[in-house]
Amino acid sequence: MFNPVIIILTVSTLHESYASWCTMQQQISCMCFQSTRISCRDQRTLTQIPSGIPTDTTYLYLTGNAISSINSTVLSELTSLFILDLKNNYISSIESGAFADLTSLYLLSLESNRITSMNSTVLSGLTSLNTLRLQNNHISSIEHGAFTSLVSLEILNLENNKFSSLKSGMFASLVSLSNLNLKDNNLTTVSANLFGSTTNLRELDLSGMALMCCSMIDLIKWAQNQTELTVFTGTCHDLNTTTDIDSFNSTICSVDGEWGSWSTTPCSVTCGNGFKFRNRSCDNPSPSKDGQYCVGNSTEYSNCRLRNCPVDGQWGSWSTTSCSVSCGDGIWYRNRSCDSPKPSADGKYCVGPSMESMLCNLGECRESCKESDKKSEWKKAKEGKWRRNR
């Protein structure tokens, strides 16, 4: 029969709830001390964070165990936690929001685990966190926004991970950051665009990496302008020379050209379909000291369409009527329409009449024709040879 070994440290000020919780652990040994502190260390049989931990615990040490994951609820009641130490476990999975309720947490240690990445919400809620230890993991990527909640963070240790590149703006939200350790990663360059426009950084450690000096000119110049930065550690290599990064002379580097902003011409027409150009120059910066010219086109064009062009109306063909009488003198008409094409988009209407008339004679009428009919047609004819109507 299994007989668990239980180690209990109690003092006169120990809360009854702590003494009771420690005594109840059957397969692990924990120490409860100084009223609200618990330590369960160096037990490879401890594979998950124990349940039922007193809710007013302030210090929780769970180092050297075999914990492999942290779910989103196991810590949610421990809102008084000040220090949470989980180093030297097997942690590879942390659910989103696992620390969301730990708004009083000051120090979080996850060092020496098996973490490979961190999503954007895994650290949410840690608004009071001062120190975050992530060294000695396998982290190769951290999602954008993962540090957004850490407005009080001053110390961040990412030493000995697997970073080969860092995303632009990765540390921009860490407005209180004073100490950043990136030592012993797989980086060959580090850019100033990692940081925000203002920073309180005092220590930056980039040692233990094969950094290329001339690819980090922006960071070197940035560091020279940081009045708070007193420790800038690391070496870089270029031109067959290894140099302390804080003393590298960037003027010896060749500079590759970079494109400036596009400038765009107006559309080639004032209406209808046309095209437009956009141009840019390789001057931001210009290449120097055998630096490469910009890659890509300096000019591009695209189609453009403006409002419909105005269309002036044009007359269609004439259509002619028959003579208005069957004998004698009469009138015939011809008509046309302004529809070849019709005017559109403020185009002009056709110029000229839409109808014309002229006299016609179909020969003398027979005797049976009434005299009054003849007089009527002759009266119309006397009005003019052509008559035009609009």
Q: How would you characterize the overall build of this protein?
A:
With about 400 residues, the chain is mainly beta. Among the domains are: about 265-305, TSP-1 type 1 repeat; about 320-390, Thrombospondin type-1 (TSP1) repeat (TSP-1 type 1 repeat, Single Sheet). Helices cover about 5% and strands about 20% of the residues. The chain contains 3 helices and 24 strands. The strands form 6 sheets. The protein has a 10-stranded mixed β-sheet, with helices on one face. A 4-stranded antiparallel β-sheet has the order 21-22-23-24. The longest helix is centred in the C-terminal third of the chain and has 12 residues, at about 370-380. The protein is elongated, with a radius of gyration of 44 Å. Mean pLDDT is about 85; it is low at about 1-15.
Radius of gyration over all CA atoms, rounded:
44 Å
Residue share in helix: under 10%
Can you name the CATH architecture of the domain at 319-389? Single Sheet
Order of helices and strands: HEEEEEEEEEEEEEEHEEEEEEEEEHE
State the distance separating the first and last CA atoms: 118 Å
Signal peptide: 1-19
Pfam family, one: TSP_1
Protein name: HMCN
Region (Disordered): 369-390
Which secondary structure elements does this structure contain, and how are they paired or packed?
Blueprint: H1 16-24, E1 31-33, E2 37-39, E3 59-61, E4 69-70, E5 83-85, E6 93-94, E7 107-109, E8 117-118, E9 131-133, E10 141-142, E11 155-157, E12 179-181, E13 203-205, E14 211-212, H2 217-224, E15 231-233, E16 235-238, E17 241-244, E18 263-264, E19 273-279, E20 299-305, E21 319-320, E22 329-335, E23 355-361, H3 371-382, E24 386-389
Parallel strand pairs: 2-3, 3-5, 4-6, 5-7, 7-9, 8-10, 9-11, 11-12, 12-13, 13-15, 14-16
Antiparallel strand pairs: 1-2, 16-17, 18-19, 19-20, 21-22, 22-23, 23-24
GO cellular component, one term: plasma membrane
Signal peptide: 1-19
Protein name: HMCN
